[in-house]
């Protein structure tokens, strides 16, 4: 963003990469996949690079309101300084907090989750995918809490997946009745509480019950937890976890 701004250009979109997209090696692949999609569609966008800092979501969910506001104000100052109007987020947690909690602190933007953005690109024929690219695959989709119950976005990810000619299978707990992966609300960063089973184990059992060999996700937290669940169940040879951006990027047509 600093480079294009110095050239006098105002990109239409800011792609908010997020902490996981920047630092987690597995989710860096998702960041690259989504950037590949944006480039294929000739979208005018930029990223903040080293100027991007945490949105403050984990601090707020853990109960540290002061730290959240300090982090949020720093982000808002940066975005407003560049005159950002539209923000695309790959992380539902970043999406939720920038969309719903930044406005009262002076950060008012048009915020879109990348699943909805990809759906728009597909619907408008701005990208072409090989519809047979996932042929003979059985796919299920896990609803991220902050995307689904938190913001009512259920259909966009499914429309992206079902754009392919595939065997799509819903889990028994889905949409507004979906089960959390176990990482939300800052649970990712604390020790497990006493109980008979980890949440990710329970959710992975829902995945395995579908008979799917791909579980699609749209959140870095969900990807981490379900990948752990698949490993815990010793099903790594049978089931893989892929982000919806990877499903599209791997099957893009020129």
UniProtKB/TrEMBL annotation:
Coiled coil: none annotated. GO terms for cellular component: plasma membrane. Residues 13-98, 139-226 form the Cysteine-rich domain. GO terms for molecular function: 4 iron, 4 sulfur cluster binding; metal ion binding; oxidoreductase activity. It comes from the Bacteria. Keywords: 4Fe-4S, Iron, Iron-sulfur, Metal-binding, Oxidoreductase. PANTHER family: IRON-SULFUR-BINDING OXIDOREDUCTASE FADF-RELATED (PTHR43255:SF1), IRON-SULFUR-BINDING OXIDOREDUCTASE FADF-RELATED-RELATED (PTHR43255). This is (Fe-S)-binding protein. It comes from Carboxylicivirga sediminis. The lineage of its organism: Bacteria, Pseudomonadati, Bacteroidota, Bacteroidia, Marinilabiliales.
């Amino acid at each position: 963003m600093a480079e294009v701004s110095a050239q006098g250009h105002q990109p239409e979109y800011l792609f908010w990469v997020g902490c996981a997209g920047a630092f987690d090696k597995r989710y860096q692949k998702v960041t690259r996949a989504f950037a590949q999609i944006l480039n294929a569609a000739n979208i005018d966008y930029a990223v903040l690079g080293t100027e991007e800092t945490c949105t403050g979501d984990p601090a707020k969910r853990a109960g540290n309101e002061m730290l959240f506001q300090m982090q949020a104000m720093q982000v808002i100052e940066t975005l407003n300084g560049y005159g950002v109007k539209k923000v695309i987020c790959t992380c539902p947690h970043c999406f939720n907090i920038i969309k719903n909690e930044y406005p009262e602190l002076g950060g008012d933007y048009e915020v879109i989750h990348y699943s909805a953005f990809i759906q728009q690109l597909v619907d408008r024929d701005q990208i072409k995918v090989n519809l047979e690219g996932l042929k003979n695959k059985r796919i299920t989709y896990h609803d991220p809490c902050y995307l689904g119950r938190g913001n009512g976005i259920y259909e966009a990810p499914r429309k992206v997946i079902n754009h392919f000619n595939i065997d799509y299978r819903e889990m028994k707990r889905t949409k507004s009745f979906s089960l959390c992966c176990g990482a939300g609300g800052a649970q990712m960063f604390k020790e497990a509480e006493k109980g008979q089973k980890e949440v990710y184990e329970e959710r992975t059992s829902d995945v395995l019950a579908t008979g799917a060999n791909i579980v699609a996700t749209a959140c870095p937290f969900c990807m981490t937890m379900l990948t752990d669940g698949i490993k815990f169940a010793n099903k790594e040879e049978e089931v893989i976890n892929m982000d919806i951006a990877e499903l599209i990027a791997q099957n893009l047509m020129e």
